Amino acid sequence: MRRRIAIVEDDPVIRANYADVLQKHGYEVTAYVDRGVALAALRSRLPDLVLLDIGLGDEVDGGFKLCQELRALSATLPVIFLTARDSDFDMVSGLRMGADDYVTKNVSLPHLLARVSALFRRAELLREPAPTDSTIERGLLTLDLNRFTVSWRGTAVDLTLTEFWLVHALAKFPGHVKNRDQLMGDAHIVVDDSTITSHIKRIRHKFGAVDAKFDCVDTVYGMGYRWKAAD
Amino acid sequence: MSTNGNPGFTLSIRAKLAIVALVLLVIPWVGYTYVKTMESLLRENQVQAVVASARAVATALQDRPRLIELRAPTVAEGSAAAPRPVSEQIQLLVTALARPGSRIWVIDSRLRLVATAGNFDPVPVALNKDLAFGPLERGVRVVLQFVFERVQNPLAPAAEEVIPDDVVFGGREIERALDGTPSWRWRKSPDGRTAILTALNPVWVGDSVVGAVIVEETTQAIVSLSNRALEQLVAVTLIAFGVGALTLFFFASSLSTRLRKLRDEADNAIDSQGRVRGLVAGEHARDEIGDLSRGFSTVLERLARYNAYLENLAGRLTHELRTPIAVVRSSLDNMKLQVVAPESAVYLARAEDGLNRLETILTRMSEATRLEQTVRGGERESFEANKVLAGCVAGYAAAYPARRFALTRTDQPLLLSGAPDLFAQMLDKLAANAVDFASDDPVEVSLERNDNTAVLHFSNTGPLLPAEMKERLFESMVSVRRERTTREPHLGLGLYIVRQIAEFHGGSATAEDRADGTGVVFELRFPLAD
Predict the structure, then answer these.
(1) Is the pLDDT of residue B119 over 90?
(2) Nearest CA of chain A to the CA of B358: how many Å?
(3) Is the pLDDT of residue B1 over 50?
(4) Residues in chain A closer than 8 A to B363 (CB atoms)
(5) Pair A98, A68: CB distance under 8 Å
(6) How many CB atoms lie within 10 A of CB B386?
């Protein structure tokens, strides 16, 4: 069965380009111009993944709204925000609305494809109780590389795909300092330094919510970050 | 402080008003003239009164001719018993006619004193107790009286008891009086301070002059009256002048204070970093200064809006450019997924290269915008600046292998309040800037404690700062790079970010040429957290 991807994007060229590349990679793509059209169509039949722009036509925050509405329809539907907005505020808002990832539009198509397939993998494996063979354990941390899930002290930590990749890049070799470029490469993102900083901040925050004493993500000023092996 | 168009000599408003206040000095002059005029009028009046009084006495004696005539021979004959009653009658008459404060002598034709009455004892002048300024004036007058008494005559001592020689003997007036001509004249009192008015009138009996009446009065009453008037004038003038000058002084002071405040604010309205602050001095005043302040504020507001527009320009550009770049990027990516002719591949690679540079620009611009947002968010923690610096400088060895960094730092912890991530980002920008411009090793970095301030220096050899750019260096999108030395795009945002972060930490950033002219020093000062 071909996986169905819905693109909601008001710019016709971008819409067509994304649709083309996804179709070339074997996905079935339907594209929508604005929130109303998209919602009406998606209500009748949910796709397997949705790529969402935030500003949709006249609706400045149409994407946020649509994301909420989709979440109401399905709690598990993977949603990626793909937008020109790159402020922390928008990113946090987007993720709060229940998106699985947030990507700015200068992401390259291969990077985008990597995300899409990763999310499909995660969604698929979550559906069926898959054998847990590819996990990484670092002290209290457990990374499931197939489902892209993370747990700390046995409690699941709800990370986005980007955050998962960052944690993975750090925890793979504890103690090794990863600079920002390496992290960006590992997490398939092309953003500036401060975006990494805010991703790291969010990761710490999420782990901190599970364990107040969490301090494994260590900043090495001037170099980058490293995963501090827990005692 | 701007001194543009400032002449070397400035006269403050206060000084100008003080000069204007000198006009008030015309008041005492006018008053003095007035008092003097009044005094001369009074004197004229006095002359008339005294002359009239002399005439009256003379007339009274003429009506009783025997009083003098009878007495004359008696005295001449040396009989002491008879004339008494006559003399007493004359004395009574004269005493009755004497005005207070005046003296009357009656002499006969042989210059013998027949009767005398009155004296120069000062007549109590009714003091004008009405004070224009109440207790204040009384106070001033008490002081003034003391001064006046020193300067002016004390009340003249009771004058001589006999007719002065120059009046009686050889006095032309007496001769003229005895010749039958009334006259009057002024003479100085023996102490020389007041004048004495002498009026002479002959006493006719039939066709012959049998004697003369001499009436004398000092001007003391007038003098003391005019003195009192002058005293009051001086007091009132002093008070009026004082009150007026004080009022003017306060008025001028408040004016100059307001203006100075306005000027200071206007001077500082645009700081060295190009940020605009509104004026608050006198913004509600309903006068010209208020107008000036509001006018200034309007101009500044417009400037601020323009500056804000410029500062937001980066953010808006990033946002607006991202969509067309996404179009190009996704189109190129799509094209790469197809089989492309080799000659086209070259162009594809070039297009991609250009796109990457464009994206770098975008990334830089959004970095600045993002930072502004972070700084506004303002989460703070306490961190050791020297540790962050040491880590960063160690990292630069790897990041810039071609340049050597020399670090001087203290071992004592320098605690700053802020965000270590941002602090590191700021150091990165300073390092990148220093490396870009450095012509020789090493880039000197130091962090020292100076009282309650942490002072950070980044110093590199290389071209000096263009003088006109020193102030603007830390503004958004200002760059002093003359030629494109690298393929990296430069937007002049690096030092803008430095400034933003420095200010987030409560600090400030300045750039100067090295003292020996071999390069440039960036100095950043941060208040230590306690």
Answers:
(1) no
(2) 10
(3) no
(4) 191-192
(5) yes
(6) 22
